[in-house]
Amino acid sequence: MPRKHRFLGLAFTAFTLMTTAALAGGSIHVLKSASCGCCVAWMKHMSESGFAVTAENVPMADLMSAKTDAGLPADQASCHTARIDGYVIEGHVPATDVKRLLAERPDAIGLAVPGMPYGSPGMGEPGPDADPYDVNLVRRGGTIETFASYR
């Protein structure tokens, strides 16, 4: 096989694999402050889980406005706010829960992990020292249901 055809075949295979990975999770856009390292760690977790991640550093006032505009109750806030396929993902939500949300498609604003619990994705290692936390489903109108629990 000529070298040119081999190269094109490899390039096509690489493109297909990258496209498949991005489609497996979807494209997620993250709003965060420029100084937040745990947001970067969470974005890495999402990327490693198959999501195509983009980020935008915004002033804190704009970040807070984005949360309010999305309809998130103040007690559900965390350090970053993301959007994917019509949903809001607030804070350190595990990628598996985002995938489940996208598969089930509930009538909701999205998912939230309030605060920054240690042991959640981007906030240290899960294990015996991890904080217990819930992933909350935020319904339209502000009602909250537990979507997943980590203990």
Automatic annotation (TrEMBL):
InterPro entries: DUF411
Keyword Signal: yes
Entry keyword set: Signal
Signal peptide bounds: 1-24
Official protein name in the record: DUF411 domain-containing protein
Species annotation: Nitratireductor mangrovi
